[in-house]
């Protein structure tokens, strides 16, 4: 089956009725959990980005509480799972500030985690990669926001 372009899909959707569109959305939500999460974001969370960010932060806190600290292997596995969750939710929002805030929060939690992630090279590298991604995202913002987020980043990257 040949994959069509976004433009072709957009043109075809313009020719469909509201009921057909509703059916398409519901059908899409049945196929992948990510589709359902995106629809939920668009319908319920996109109007209040701050509440969305706070709900993700609460979920991050809960997931960090559940990490098994018996070995660095288990810690690394759990941290990667949390990071995948954060990245998936970042993709839902079109705002760079959401990405920056969630990654800074994740890095803050990771930096304060015990046992220290700095004793394990792969966890430390994961942390440093996220710091670099934050710096790159900050550079695309307005100067005032760059300064504000830069100060926040320096406070966790000590």
If you had to describe this structure to a student in words, what would you say it looks like?
The protein is mainly alpha-helical. It has a domain at 48-156. Helix content is 78%, strand content 0%. The protein contains eight helices and no strands. It is globular and about 55 Å long.
Beta fraction of the residues? under 5%
Radius of gyration, in angstroms, nearest whole number: 19 Å
Q: Helix proportion of residues, in percent?
A: over 70%
Distance between the termini: 51 Å
Shape: globular
| Secondary-structure element string | HHHHHHHH
Question: Please, how many helices?
Answer: 8
- Secondary structure category: mainly alpha
Could you tell me the mean pLDDT? 91
Please mark out the parts with pLDDT under 50 across 5 or more consecutive residues, or reply none.
none
Count of beta strands: 0
The major beta sheet can be summarized as:
none
Write the layout of secondary structure elements.
Blueprint: H1 6-14, H2 18-31, H3 33-45, H4 49-65, H5 72-92, H6 96-112, H7 121-138, H8 143-156
Helix pairs in contact: 2-3, 4-5, 4-6, 5-6, 6-7, 6-8, 7-8
């Amino acid at each position: 089956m040949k994959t069509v372009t976004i433009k072709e899909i957009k043109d075809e959707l313009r020719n469909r009725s509201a009921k057909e569109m509703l059916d398409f959305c519901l059908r899409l939500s049945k196929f992948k959990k990510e589709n359902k999460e995106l629809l939920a974001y668009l319908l319920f969370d996109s109007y209040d980005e701050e509440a969305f960010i706070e709900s993700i932060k609460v979920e991050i806190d809960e997931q960090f509480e559940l990490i098994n600290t018996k070995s660095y292997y288990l810690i690394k596995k759990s941290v990667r799972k949390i990071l995948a969750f954060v990245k998936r939710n970042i993709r839902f929002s079109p705002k760079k500030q959401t990405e920056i805030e969630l990654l800074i929060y994740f890095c803050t939690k990771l930096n304060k985690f015990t046992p220290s992630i700095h004793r394990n090279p792969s966890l430390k590298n994961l942390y440093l990669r996220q710091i670099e991604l934050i710096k790159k995202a900050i550079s695309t913002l307005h100067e005032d926001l760059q300064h504000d987020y830069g100060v926040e980043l320096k406070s966790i990257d000590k």
